[in-house]
Amino acid sequence: MNEIDATVPRSPRTWDGSAASAALQGLVASGCWNEDYFADIRRSGRYIEGSWAPEPGDREVRPPAVGSWTELIGRTGAVALRAAAPATRPERREMLLDFLEMWARTPFADPACRFSLGRLAGTTSFTVRDHQGASFGLHLPAARKALYFEALLPGGEAAPRPEEPLYVVDCPRGWGNPGQLLRLVELVRERGPVAWDADAALALSGATGLSRPAAALVLAGNPGAGSYYEPFLDEHERTAIGFKAGELESARAELSALRDDDRLALLADVMPADPADLWEPGGLARVAERTAAAWSEQHGARPNAPWSTWQSAVALQTRMPATHLCHLFLDPANATLPPDFCLRARPCPPEHRHLRTAWDAMGDYDAATVADAVFAGLPWAYADLPAGDPVRTGAPEVVHHLRKVLAGRDSPARVLRSGVVRGNRGSRRRAWLKDGTCDRVIARITAGDLPPGRYESDPRACAPDLVADVAATLRLPEDAATFYLQLLLLPVPSDRNVRRWNAWTPARHKAAAAELLARGLVVEDRRARAGRTLFLPGPWAHAKKPLPPMEFWKAPLIGAELSDDGSEVEAFDLLPGTLPELFTEAWRLVRAGEGPTA
Q1: Sequence-separated (6 or more) residues with CB below 8 Å from residue 155
Q2: 414 within domain boundaries
Q3: What is the total count of domains within the chain?
Q4: Mean pLDDT throughout 6-32?
Q5: Which domain of life is it from (predicted)?
């Protein structure tokens, strides 16, 4: 590693508090940054070293607050990785580089110094030092607590303590000595940010169970944020790591279960000893390997859903992030706690976090989050995922586990029951679980009648005799008969979905559509949020996201509830039967002269 002279400072630039909060969001509490925070940190460092000589007009050295810059001591790896990543806005990168350069010239980056944080019983604030170190006390009357911060200089054995703390916890001593920090700053300014390595992010996803965009955010030094400046990532940042805004928003929600402390700890020691290794071939891949090990140690590894399945889960727009929804089906007994779960808001030692699952609902919000995810996920997994998909395969176990939890007599069971039965949808959900419909749907999944890779939404796969009957009766080719059944029944027969379900090329899809148009069975139009141009004749019901708009005729057939005038879809989540049953009923209505008409 090149030797860097840490004693030669650049001319310091002034950054306001909002710039610091935005650049460091997700790592340090936003409220700790004021208009002079660089000077505050330098002033505290000089005070600890004994080199601070206040000049007229200087502010006093102030004790640091909880969740402030002291959380970065020994854990600047996340800041360094973010500063070097291509998915960081230029103005934020400059602020981060200035911060690291400033930090490198304080005792907080000196591995020979030791720091501790704790709590005091008293109600006074103080700042004291001697030749061995310094200590700070900060009383917060509104919070009814007093914070303690202690610094020991090299060779020091005990800092002065006007008051004995209730407890102290040593700050970590990880990556980020002055030479490493200044070397990184120099390299980024000389070479620009590190080239993005999509394969490294993919490997991190596979090793941890994180979604691909969440793994990319972590590898870019941006592992989510509870509160953040909008947009979370701008167009430049999204382009740099190759994901869409909706995918990255779901990834941010996925990572929002982490606390600032978790994020700092995760990336504290993933940087290479020599920062120049980041620019070498495979440099970011090696960071990904270290990050995967740190993630597994903190949170354990979880199974991955196929990429197309995860993308489909994002489109469901459940309150539970797509990755957690997939985990719920991949491993129901150990399902991930969703963000904002009541349990997460309470202190929980890391070694005990794995004991809490999504089924451990402790409040109405939690129960509704899980119940909504389950009842949105079950019909989606059944009808919209291919046979052999691991998320679809897990649906029977989800139902088994849901029923097992609901049958319990403990508090989580009672709370979860309220999430299932509450509101207008509660009676439908309860009936769906108990009247045999759920059992018939699950039986379709477990029977294994669909060949691997085929969809229940393709009537050729789930009801081939019915397709043959439609084709013979209407004198249609098989493809056109298949497409007609899908338009009659399915809630979202968009062009993209139909081609995916049927494994059709655009040309084959167009040919089937032309047959239906020529026979007058459908009309051609453009309608908001439909994703298609062919529709059944008759009235149309609009819908607000995430509900699907659909033809008025099919709404009662598939269990959708419409407004009094029939112009809007107001509720839809559970199909009232299996798709073979419903395809058959749709065709029966058409044959009986009760089909869709203009």
Answers
A1: 132
A2: yes
A3: 2
A4: 71
A5: Bacteria
In this structure, what are the phi and psi dihedrals at residue 365, rounded to the nearest 5 degrees? -65, -45
Tell me the average pLDDT across 277-292.
Answer: 98
Residue 433 has pLDDT above 50, yes or no: yes
**Is 22 inside a domain boundary?**
no
Residue 393 domain flag: yes
Cβ–Cβ < 8 Å for 147, 120: yes
* Amino acid 270: pLDDT: 98
Provide φ and ψ at 450, rounded to 5°: -80, 135
What contacts 178, CB < 8 A, 6 or more positions away? 4, 6, 104, 105, 109, 110
The mean pLDDT value for 337-355 works out to 48
Helices (H), 520-578: 555-558
Residue 432 shares a structural domain with residue 311: yes
Higher pLDDT, 173 or 350: 173
In sequence order, the β-bridge partners of residue 117 are: 149, 169
The pLDDT score that the predictor gives to residue 339 is 53
Evaluate if residue 68 carries a pLDDT over 70. yes
Nearest to 421 by CA among 379, 367, 373: 367
Q: What is the DSSP code string of 479-533?
A: HHHHHHHHHHH-S---HHHHHHHHT--HHHHHHHHHHHHHTTSSEE---TT---S
Residue 474's domain comprises 459-591
Q: Are residues 342 and 443 in the same domain?
A: yes
What was the pLDDT predicted at 344?
42
* Domain assignment present for 117: no
Q: Are residues 515 and 443 in the same domain?
A: no
Q: Are residues 403 and 440 in the same domain?
A: yes
Same domain, residue pair 404 and 434? yes
Match 């596979």 to its residue by tokens: 206
Alpha carbon distance 58, 43 (integer Å): 10
Mean pLDDT of 44-73: 79
Where does a domain end: 390, 425, 447?
447
Distance CA 567, CA 549 (A): 10
Residue 345's pLDDT band (cuts 50, 70, 90):
very low
211 CB-near residues (< 8 Å, 6+ apart):
205, 247, 250, 251, 254, 310, 322, 323
pLDDT confidence band for 135 (50 / 70 / 90): very high
Judge if 527 and 421 occupy the same domain: no
- Calpha distance 468→494 (Å, rounded): 23
Phi, psi (degrees; rounded to nearest 5) at 116: -140, 150
DSSP secondary structure letters along 401-448: HHHHHHT--SHHHHHHHHHHHSSHHHHHHHHHHHSSHHHHHHHHHHH-
> By mean pLDDT, which of 22-36, 107-121, 517-531 is the weakest?
22-36
Q: How far apart are the first and last CA of the chain?
A: 77
Q: Is the pLDDT reported for residue 355 higher than 50?
A: no
* 555 shares its domain with 532: yes
pLDDT score at 95: 94
